[in-house]
Automatic annotation (TrEMBL), chain A:
Entry protein name: Antagonist of KipI
Gene Ontology molecular function: any one: ATP binding
Listed Pfam families: CT_A_B
SUPFAM superfamilies: Cyclophilin-like
TrEMBL record, chain B:
Sorted UniProt keywords: ATP-binding, Hydrolase, Nucleotide-binding
Example of a GO MF term: ATP binding
Pfam families linked to this entry: CT_C_D
Domain Carboxyltransferase per the UniProt entry, residue ranges: 8-211
Claim: Iron is one of the keywords in the record: no
Organism of this sequence: Propionispira arboris
InterPro entries linked to this entry: CT_C_D (IPR003833), Cyclophilin-like_dom_sf (IPR029000), PxpB (IPR010016)
Keyword ATP-binding appears in the UniProt entry: yes
The protein, known as: Inhibitor of KinA
Amino acid sequence: MITVIQQGDFTTLQDQGRWGYQAWGMPIAGAMDSYAYKMANCLIGNLETAAVIEMTGSGAAFRFDEETLVSLCGADMQASVNGNIIANWSSVLIPRRGELHFGRAVLGRRAYLGVRGGFDVPLVMGSRSTYTGAKLGGLEGRTLQQGDVLYIGKDTFIPAKVQKLTANDIPVFSKTWTLRVVSGPQTHLFQAEAVFRFFSEVYLVTAADRVNYQLAGPKLAMLDKVDVISDGVGLGAIEIPACGLPYIVAPDHGTTRGFPKIGYIIQVDFPKVAQANIGDTIQFQQVTEATAIAALKIERTAYERIKKQLG
Amino acid sequence: MDAFLDDVKLLAAGEGGLVVEFGAIISPTINLCVQSFMRMVSASKINGMIEAVPSYCSVVIYFDPFKITRASLTKQIEVILANLQLTKLGDLVRRVVHIPVCYGGVLGPDIDYVAKYTGLMIEQVIKLHAGQPYLVYMLGFTPGFPYLGGLSDLLIVPRQEKPRNRVPVGSVGIGGNQTGFYPIESPGEWWLIGRTPLKAFDPTRSEPFLLAPGDYVQFESIPLEQYFSIRQAVTQGIYQLKVSAEEQV
């Protein structure tokens, strides 16, 4: 049994997301930083689908009734066990009646806590991810609150130990981000000058939640005042609403929207979005689809290697 | 129909997304292409396809680029489009889902305003709103929220300037040339003319969604007592949804 003794700013249970229902308007939800999520499960021998805790900005604190192997990944929130600072991107044994505290994120925005076995909450439409917009998944469809009690599941497949990711496999976070972008279904509806500015100037993050990231910077004009009819919009899409400032589509975003999409952030770069804070800067970099696929291939190969190393 | 199909555009939506765009206007004919295409894509079980998301005039197909390349997916989509051209689209069979609505009163607080704005009697507003089936063009905005087409021109009322923060579940509203009902509590800028006791979305049901894209919705006016009795049956899980004998359109 694990008790939440401090709730943090926005703490939810997440897994790989609720896929298969977008045709009915159900957002995918799921961990914002898919890399940190995968590593959190990998470090403790969990199944790839086990639920973890996602903390945002300011972390939570937990008391463990039993000795428990846990993993910490993502933003560095200066985690400590009974007052002793512990390493990020590692697995740690929490003693019986131990307390695990997370502070404010010093770099990055979202931290992940895995427990060996995963968190035992009911599957809702195939996933344990919390989607607060419809109050479903996770624990009663909401953020975790002080006093909540969580139980450990059985989502493991191999023995696990106390270990740490090697430095090469730990992503570097900063306050300036370069996000690679492939063209979107409506890129052609923008003035060439707008597309040029989009890729050459710097944007400032002004909102950073699970629905979308809002940015300040150069306003982008379309060729004509075209009304884009609502259509499907996926993770990492960059929408340009009427105000001309970009929105980045995050996992809790609606499945459809009537905004033109100037591009899509490549899949391996979305974890960077998850770790960008309000006030950080973003520079978009235009790449080809071949580059996006090559990057994805590198990431998948690395994942297989890490799984073997940690296993 | 074939003229539309000749103009189909295939666009990229990220390295794992393909948009099949049938046009750029809201029309029942283009949406019929979308629905027919969706059925064929769903039946095709293309290896590597994750899911397909239909909207007014396009379908986004999300895929795993390691299981299927864009080039190979495109080839398979082109085959489906060619078959779609050969199929008589008019043969698509659709469901008509009957949605009971208690109009006016506390459950439809804005019906007086709608009557006043349109110059109709309240009874006429109800009769017009429940007078014909509406096409479910797509679902979106929130889980299970239907974008319906077919609102009578006589019922067009500009949306509220200040959206309500919390529209109660089941509220039936109209705004601009649109109408629909709210599956979950959410903000909304439509005028609320009634409420249905049905749950358009319930994640605990084996079929969480009442409606699917391409269905028709027929609203039926019910008195307040029946609203409560149906709501009770829905809560107990014993309500029998009325779906008309499948209808060819």
